[in-house]
Amino acid sequence: xxxxxxxxxxIYELVRQLKNAGYIAYIVGGAIRDLMLGREPKDYDxxxxxxxxxxxxxxxxxxxxxxxxxxxxxxxRMGPDIIEISTFRRSPESTGQIxxxxxxxxxxxNMIFRDNDFGTAEEDAWRRDFTVNALFYDxxxxxxxxxxxxxxxxxxxxxxxxxxxxGLRFEEDPVRVLRALKLVGQYGFTLDPATEAAVRTSGSLxxxxxxxxxxxxxxxxxxxxxxxxxxxxxxxxDFLQYCLPxxxxxxxxxxxxxxMQLLAERGRRILEGRYxxxxxxxxxxxxxxxxxxxxxxxxxxxxxxKNYAALTAIRRIIKEVFQPHNMIKRLAxxxxxxxxxxxxxxxxxxxxxxxxxxxxxEHARExxxxxxxxxxxxxxxxxxxxxxxxxxxxxxxxxxxRRRPKPQPRLRPDTAYPAxx
Length: 421
Description:
With about 425 residues, the protein is an alpha+beta fold. It has 2 domains: about 1-150, 2-Layer Sandwich (Beta Polymerase, domain 2); about 210-395, cca-adding enzyme, domain 2 (Orthogonal Bundle). The chain is built from 21 helices and 9 strands. It has helices at about 10-20, 30-35, 50-60, 120-125, 150-155, 165-170, 175-185, 195-200, 210-225, 225-235, 240-245, 245-250, 255-270, 280-295, 310-320, 330-340, 350-355, 360-375, 380-385, 390, 415; strands at about 25-30, 45-50, 65, 75-80, 80-85, 135-140, 145, 160, 190. The chain is globular and about 70 Å long. It starts with 8 loop residues before the first helix and ends in a 5-residue tail after the last helix.
């Protein structure tokens, strides 16, 4: 006899509204995993028998927006949150190249480009990637459905098992390789033998994934509190070379080991509620040891001299570390700011109040505290560089007001010059 899964009130209400409108609706995906493992879900996905247009009719066009082409779904606004609702799918009838659309190179024969063939809840379960992702939960009636017959047992055993033939499923959507390894890194699951064998031989298929979608998946990993574990899982299954080749190339180096220590500390602080899950901070954490190795003083934690050449090197190294992904510009700029401020914390000539109130101080301080926890363990740094709320108690440095010159009276055109005769 299992305990009832406790979901948030807005999610319960959303499912109830769909059911009251005459549709079948379930919570699906990662939220069920988290609930069964006693974790707080970071987000919820809903799947229903209602079509996207019918979902919009239930929640109103102002609160519901249809998005996506390859996989059409609806974003429903519930207060400050946006909940993703999909319609039950069945396996698509057509795969491979889309007629009339040229691609720069051949794609896998079974790769899916359109996934909008609607179906039943059971058909939807069987077309999903792994058994632990094919569990459906109705919070109104407290029903947990396991159409594959393996999902609940695999959850308890911590096994990632592909639904159907693993190689075919990865060919249909190469991102499934990445998601399998995320389950390993985030939950400590293990791949079943057939799935692991396919993961090791299917990694290169990820190169057929659209660059924007691939980069979005990398950003989700960087945002995660389990980023270090996921990257380790990628390396262990020879997949990191396709995601972050610079990191794989330098895997056995001291900078990589130091970066993993910093990422692990960041993850602990996120889970404790002390840090936000900032992508730019994760980028800075990974890049910092490699920056120190190239332009620093030859030892971790010694940082570097701040000058124009250093700032140029920071930009270049960040780009190299995260190739081939074009990270969102504001994330890269924020990571550069975090890193460029690090030497200022140890510069006696830098005015403390100015740094306390500088733009980017909060994330830069978080980076500083990660280094302090892993390397220096200096309590004086914590006292000297307070959290932003505490920093707000310090008066902002005053600026001398520049006196503006009094405006000179402007002559009318007819008085500017002597009249011509």
